[in-house]
Specification:
By secondary structure, the chain is α+β, with helices and mostly antiparallel strands. It has 2 domains: 1-70 and 134-233, 3-Layer(aba) Sandwich (NADH Oxidase); 73-133, no CATH class. It has 11 helices and 6 strands. It has helices spanning 3-9, 24-35, 54-71, 75-83, 89-95, 101-104, 110-120, 122-133, 135-147, 167-188, 203-212; strands spanning 46-51, 85-86, 99-100, 150-157, 191-195, 219-229. The strands form 2 sheets. A 4-stranded antiparallel sheet has the order 1-4-6-5, with helices on both faces. The chain has a two-stranded parallel ribbon with strand order 2-3. Helix 3 packs antiparallel against helix 11 (203-212) and helix 7 (110-120) packs antiparallel against helix 8. The radius of gyration is 19 Å and the shape is globular. It starts with a helix and ends in a 27-residue tail after the last strand. Bound molecules: flavin mononucleotide (FMN).
Length: 256
């Protein structure tokens, strides 16, 4: 497999992960890949915590459930999500961006049936969310975390900020490079990874996740990943815009 094959086959896996615990050797391999990521001034602004204790996964799951349910009561959030969600697979493939509804919600669920209507009517959706309609998606999010054999929580280390007026942005870019290294190493080892970030949407949520995991105040939770081995027939499509939609040479062309 070439590096490009590995890059292309990495997926955000909502599929079921095998129960098999991830070996220490594989955790070391992922950590080593993360370790060699580039960062501005080599500040290495990250900390990783691998979580496999059932009680801790349950607590993170509970928090994610509550945050997901709360988000779905926010009309602005629902409207933004609708903008990036395709109702049909054909629409998703034609667009080449965003997410596909069928991946996000169980196709047999009531939420999946009513979602297309609700996405067009964000205020109604948010009202239903406030009345508790977000509990179903919230529970699904909780299950993703509770049932995964391993979670990896990525922290931004506030004592390791890049110099420069744009330090916060350089630091975020470095964290992105770090977790992509980790995810590619995971892909190579047959491990699926998925971001489950609802609990980190707000400052309170990030603080709560940090407190739950005993993080110092200088560490800010930035990402929650669930990890697990994939069955050999796991196959999940994804889409991207064509290269010429975002790659140019020398100057941007004026819009036609
Ligand atoms: C910083 C970041 C946060 C993300 N958060 C979530 C999330 O909370 N839940 C989720 O299902 N996917 C999340 N994703 C995954 C994206 O939805 C996914 O990468 C995108 O739809 C493309 O799919 P693919 O990675 O399978 O190609 C996140 C991705 C990134 C980079």
């Amino acid at each position: 497999m070439t590096l490009l094959d590995t890059i292309r086959s990495r997926r955000s896996q909502r599929a079921e992960l095998l129960d098999t615990p991830i070996t220490d050797d594989d955790i070391e391999y992922l950590s080593e890949a993360a370790r060699w990521a580039p960062s501005p001034f080599n500040v290495q602004p990250w900390a990783l915590l691998f979580v496999d204790e059932p009680e801790t996964k349950a607590a993170l799951g509970r928090l994610s459930r509550e945050c997901t349910a709360e988000q779905l009561g926010n009309a602005d959030f629902v409207r933004d999500v609708a903008r990036w969600t395709s109702v049909t697979g054909d629409e998703w493939r034609d667009r080449g961006d965003g997410v596909y509804l069928g991946d996000q919600l169980d196709e047999s669920s009531l939420a999946h049936t009513v979602a297309p209507f609700l996405m067009k009517h964000a205020r109604a959706a948010a009202l239903l969310g406030k009345l508790g309609a977000g509990q179903g998606p919230g529970k699904a999010t909780e299950r993703l975390l509770v049932e995964a054999p391993l979670l990896c929580v990525v922290f931004r280390d506030g004592t390791r900020v890049s110099p420069g007026a744009n330090g916060a942005m350089w630091t975020s870019l470095a964290i992105g490079a770090m977790f992509q290294n980790l995810l590619l190493a995971a892909t190579e080892r047959g491990i699926g990874g998925q971001f489950v970030c609802a609990a980190l949407e707000t400052e309170d949520g990030r603080r709560e996740v940090g407190a739950l995991l005993g993080a110092k105040d200088s560490l800010e939770a930035a990402l929650i990943l669930r990890l697990g081995y994939l069955s050999s027939d796991a196959d999940k499509p994804s889409v991207r815009r064509p290269r010429d939609a975002f790659v140019g040479r020398n100057r941007f062309e004026e819009d036609a």
